[in-house]
Amino acid sequence: MEVRIGIVNAPRELSFESNQPASEVEAAVNASLAGKALTLELRDEHGSLFIVPTAGIAYVQVGSEESRRVGFVA
User: Fold this and answer.
1) SS3 annotation, 3-65
2) What are the tens digits of pLDDT across the range 17-71?
3) DSSP-derived pairing of the beta strands 49-53 and 39-43
4) Would you state the pLDDT for residue 36?
5) Strand arrangement, sheet containing 14-17
6) Is the pTM value of this prediction over 0.90?
7) Strand partners, 42
């Protein structure tokens, strides 16, 4: 699924594909925004770790878990 994180005072967003379930990403975002953690830590599909300071998060967009269809739709 695609995850997009908007950073305060940054012209571009952080965007990556993740293999984590949407519920797990949502729980991590909610925990960090509730003040339980100073950073939001998520992994992409290649295993890279993204660490974002909670104070710098403007928004988080979590895409759907279903894959996009390829080809023509009748």
Assistant:
1) EEEEECCCCCCEEEECCCCHHHHHHHHHHHHCCCCCEEEEECCCCCEEEEEHHHEEEEEECCC
2) 999 898 999 999 999 989 888 999 999 999 999 999 999 999 999 987 666 667 6
3) antiparallel
4) 85
5) 14-17, 2-7, 57-62
6) no
7) 50
Go through the domains of the chain in sequence order and give each one's CATH number.
2-62 (2.30.30)
| pLDDT the model gives residue 1 | 86
CA distance linking residue 66 with residue 62, whole number of Å: 12
Q: What is the DSSP letter of 68?
A: P
DSSP strand pairing (14-17 vs 2-7): antiparallel
Question: And the tokens for 40?
Answer: 């939001």
The mean pLDDT value for 7-26 works out to 92
Handedness of CA 63, 64, 68, 74 (dihedral sign): negative
